[in-house]
Design a protein that fits this description.
Blueprint (H helix, E strand, L loop, with lengths): L5 E6 L6 E7 L4 H8 L5 E4 L15 E4 L6 E5 L4 E5 L4 H9 L3 E2 L11 H6 L7 H4 L6 E8 L3 E6 L4 H7 L8 E8 L1 E2 L4 E9 L2 H9 L6 E7 L10 E8 L28 H17 L3 E5 H5 L7 H4 L6 E8 L4 H15 L3 E9 L12 E9 L2 H16 L3 E2 L9 H7 L3 H11 L8 H5 L3
Parallel strand pairs: 2-4, 3-4
Antiparallel strand pairs: 1-2, 5-6, 6-10, 7-11, 8-9, 8-10, 12-14, 12-15, 13-14, 16-18, 16-19, 17-18
Length: 442
């Protein structure tokens, strides 16, 4: 039967995994049903911007829903919208913003699909205030190969609703989503910049900034121990004095990147880039006006940052650290840093809010992100950090870090077994699988 499938090679966004996969691109609802019956193992694929291979895997048929990109219903009065899961964020926002509405939990790239964002329980830069996308979801239409079509919400099939949001596509194919919308009349932001001298200084200032409708995050240096944690806090606040008009967000990706066979990022180039970026932010005005696109999609137009890691790609480690364990975790992290001297190109901190459940990367904690050059020394360093995660009950993002193994996962995600048991109860044959789910034995 697989002789009738189309075939292509896919890479995880971090370039740490690749596989030649079989795929189908349905454009009708009945084709989702038909194609789902063609393979023992299946998984739904959106735009494939997940750092970790969560939406494809060897042996699984990928259902690619890029043709399912319509707006099905919009109720301005109720502030609700129903869309198909293949709709990308930029098209979604362009429609909503002209009606002075949006959802604030927007992940940071305009071509991510809404189905992928729901499956990952994504968040944006205002996650300390607005939490994850779960807070804006009213309902989901799901198709499961054996359980059929299911409407999911707090009132209907709540158990499966909870498993599906942040469930990595393992409960079936998310076909459409109904969102609860928030008002946004002004689409420009005031951006202020505040210097920080260390990690602990940065965290202290971030904790003081739990403000409504504020997007706040840091940029910190990690190129050597002397400068570790120095940097800036960026605070984006809605500018209520500007016009209600907005510049349309680009809906089609431009081919403006080049690919290097080797890594351009190393200790020297990272240090030079950090010095230049620090100088740039010091000489700029510490308060400026910015368009919404630049605020919510900071890496758009800067894609070569990722290509500078070369063919071997990079490792992103995103960690949710409990507030009460934060200082101890940072101290031990720095101790290992002194021993290993890892190569870190990006270091950022932000607040996170919410309730952690099942596989969701969520909670009232501090979110710390590191981007590492992919080499043996950094892999060894990260193995030590995995042990710290277990020790201090830190939650590593399995969507971001494709290194994470079953041992680390099960020791950090305390409800992992409950998720697996409930998923098995719903799908006794475990039909929906990806590389990520197989690696972690979900």
């Amino acid at each position: 039967m697989k002789n009738n499938f189309e075939k292509k090679k896919l890479y995880s966004f971090d370039k740490n995994y690749s596989s030649t996969i079989f795929f189908k691109e349905p454009d009708k609802y009945r084709e989702i049903e038909k194609f789902s019956k063609l393979s023992k193992e299946i998984i739904t694929t959106g735009a494939n911007y997940s750092y970790s291979p969560a939406a494809f895997g060897e042996g699984s048929l990928s259902l690619m829903l890029k043709r399912f990109d319509r707006i099905l219903n919009f109720d301005l009065k109720k502030k609700e919208i129903t869309v198909e899961s293949g709709l990308i964020l930029s098209k979604f926002l362009n429609f909503l913003l002209k009606n002075n509405l949006w959802i604030p939990q927007i992940p940071g790239y305009p071509f991510i699909t809404l189905g992928g964002a729901v499956a990952a329980n994504s968040h944006g830069k205002s996650c300390g205030t607005h939490g994850t996308i779960r807070n804006s979801i009213k309902g989901i239409l799901l198709f499961h190969k054996t359980n059929g079509w299911l409407e999911l919400s707090e009132e209907k099939n709540k158990d499966i609703f909870d498993l599906t949001i942040g469930g990595l596509g393992l409960t079936g194919t998310i076909v459409n989503i109904t969102f609860k919308l928030s008002s946004l009349e002004h689409k420009q932001f005031n951006t202020t910049i505040d210097q920080v001298t260390s990690v602990k200084d940065c965290i202290k200032k971030l904790k003081q900034e739990y403000l409504e409708d504020t997007f706040i995050y840091s940029w910190n240096r990690a190129d050597n121990i002397k400068n570790f944690g120095k940097g800036f806090i960026f605070k984006n606040t809605i500018n209520n004095k500007t016009s209600k008009k907005f510049r349309k967000i680009i809906e089609k990706r431009k081919n403006n990147v080049f690919h290097l066979p080797f890594a351009l990022w190393n200790k020297t180039t990272i240090k030079v880039a950090n010095i230049m970026y620090s100088i740039l932010n010091k000489i700029q005005k510490n308060k400026r006006n910015e368009e919404i696109e630049k605020v919510i999609f900071p890496f758009f137009g800067k894609e070569n940052y990722f290509n500078f890691y070369g063919k071997k790609g990079f490792i992103e480690s995103q960690l949710l650290v409990p507030n009460e364990k934060l200082n101890e975790f940072i101290d031990e992290f720095l101790s290992f840093y002194k021993s290993y001297n890892p190569t870190i190109a990006l270091f950022s901190i932000k607040n996170m809010s919410g309730t952690q459940k099942y596989l969701r990367f969520e909670g009232d904690k501090v979110c710390i992100t590191f981007d590492y050059v992919n080499n043996d020394l950094n892999q060894k360093f990260l193995s030590e950090i995995d042990k710290l995660c277990i020790k201090y009950k830190v939650l590593p993002s399995i969507i971001k870090d494709s290194r994470i193994n079953k041992h680390t996962f099960e020791n950090c995600y305390v409800q992992a077994q409950e998720f697996k048991d409930k998923l098995k109860g719903f799908d006794k044959d475990r039909l929906y699988k990806s590389e990520l789910s197989k690696r972690l034995e979900i």
